[in-house]
Write a structure and sequence with these properties.
Elements: H1 20-27, E1 37-38, H2 46-49, E2 53-54, H3 67-91, H4 107-123
Parallel strand pairs: 1-2
Length: 124
């Protein structure tokens, strides 16, 4: 998703249940090194693949977060909120909110059409 225009740029899918990071790796999407990538904690290990990636830190029982870590996590979350809002708007179409019961072959086409409608609505 582009932060300035809030448009969906690229989508990727899997035929079965797969972790988001695994789908990302299998898509072989190449991002320009100058682009800042913001991800959630489901993408642990992305920093090893891309240098310009920002992930929130996780806490554990033995290692609670410091105030600085909490502040950094809050800053990352405040930048990612536009992505979460876009996901919420796409869920209104119910294609990703509910179980998809049609042909799997056409899921990517239909989701991309929904993303196109979302991008078109942003312009108007």
């Amino acid at each position: 998703m582009d932060k300035k225009s809030q448009k969906i740029i690229c989508t990727s899918f899997s035929n079965r249940k797969r972790h988001d990071f695994r789908v990302f790796k299998e898509s072989k999407l190449r991002l320009h090194p100058g682009i800042k990538a913001l991800a959630d904690t489901g993408y642990q290990g992305l920093q090893k693949l891309r240098a310009n990636t920002f992930l929130p830190k996780k806490k554990s029982k033995k290692h609670p977060l410091s105030k600085e870590d909490k502040k950094n996590n809050h800053a990352i979350a405040s930048e990612r909120v536009t992505n979460e809002h876009a996901i919420g708007r796409l869920k209104r179409f119910k294609i990703i909110a509910d179980r998809y019961r049609n042909r799997r072959k056409r899921f990517a086409l239909r989701f991309n059409l929904v993303a196109g409608i979302y991008n078109w609505e942003l312009q108007n």
